[in-house]
Recover the amino acids of this structure.
């Protein structure tokens, strides 16, 4: 079994690595279409459309170009290009293999500024058209 170091997974937006990324999660789900009928008590299903979302957390950095691009895309309702990279083991560069690419909408953005702690930002993406 090959174990993956979480530091090697980076999300880039428009070619720019999301600066100070702390975590990312990739979630996939499929709609289940109910095709049950009266001939059985057991429910029957077909797999419907697939949905993919990505969530990313990072330290808030007002000078980070990727974070600024996310805010602009959110405000404009435009898509961003997501790339899931295998990066260097310390997570500082996206020089490794490109694992997946997708177009996505920014579905939510938030910034938290705790007392006596670093400001953090959370962003969620809704993938449109699937991963390639």
């Amino acid at each position: 079994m090959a174990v993956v170091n979480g530091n090697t997974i980076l999300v880039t937006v428009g070619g720019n690595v999301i600066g100070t990324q702390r975590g990312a999660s990739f979630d996939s789900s499929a709609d289940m279409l109910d095709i049950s009928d009266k001939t059985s008590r057991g429910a029957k299903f077909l797999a419907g459309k697939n949905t993919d979302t990505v969530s990313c957390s990072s330290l808030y950095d007002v000078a980070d170009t990727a974070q600024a691009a996310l805010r602009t895309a959110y405000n404009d309702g435009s898509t961003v290009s997501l790339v899931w990279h295998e990066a260097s083991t310390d997570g500082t560069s996206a020089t490794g293999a490109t694992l997946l690419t997708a177009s996505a909408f920014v579905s939510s953005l938030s910034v938290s500024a705790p007392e006596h702690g670093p400001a953090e930002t959370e962003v969620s993406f809704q993938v449109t058209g699937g991963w390639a």
Q: What stands out?
A: Helices lie at 65-76.
